[in-house]
Every structure is written in C-alpha cells, then in structure tokens.
C-alpha cells in the first residue's frame, strides 16, 4: 500500500479536502463510473442511475458502517439555482443531499423532479370536490 492509499484509509475526513478521483462500478446498474465529466472533483453518485453508496455520516468522512444503496428520491434547488439530489439509504433510511453532476442523466433527473406532479398524494379526479370542501366553488377555471 503506497503512502497516499494509507492516508485515504486512515486519515479521518481525507475526502473533505482531497478529490475523490477513483473509478468505481455502480452497485445498482453495474456500469463503470469514471471521475471525468462530473464538473467537480468529488464524484459521489452514478451519472447513469443516480444511485450512490452510503459511505459518509458527514460529507467526506467515510465513517458510515452501513454501505447500503442510496436511492435518489427527490431533487431540490439551492439558493444559487443549482440542483441537488436527495438520496435515502435503502438499508438504514439515512438522508443526504448531493450536487447534481454535469454529466448526470437529464431524463432521470427530470423524472425524479416530476414525480410529485405525476403522482400527487391525492386522487386527481376528486380535486374539484376537495376544492369545494376547502371553501372554493369547485370549478376549475382554465
């Protein structure tokens, strides 16, 4: 083991201050993920299926013992307009937020962003009835 690999293994928080430029195979889709093209020095999820691996408790600390698949469940927009993915661990349920990478699959991102619109938490056929119940006239005006 060379000196740099030892530091990666034993220095707590190594990835907080050093780039994560390792190639890996996605545990979910099986594709090879290279660090080039992310637009950042910290590749933290697969650009094809957008899944990640539960490695950190705090970003870059590599202290999580779980190792479960982190499923992309939502996107949100930061103050500066940058998109970020919300991941939930399939094993322990932990949540984390990761910047969207430059080479992420745009169709996957849009399908995650549109989930609340395409599958609302109430039946769309009852929206007029629900509007009346809330004091509105129940008539949709287009």
UniProtKB/TrEMBL annotation:
Residues 21-110 form the RNHCP domain. It holds the Pfam family RNHCP. InterPro entries: RNHCP. It comes from the Bacteria. This is RNHCP domain-containing protein.
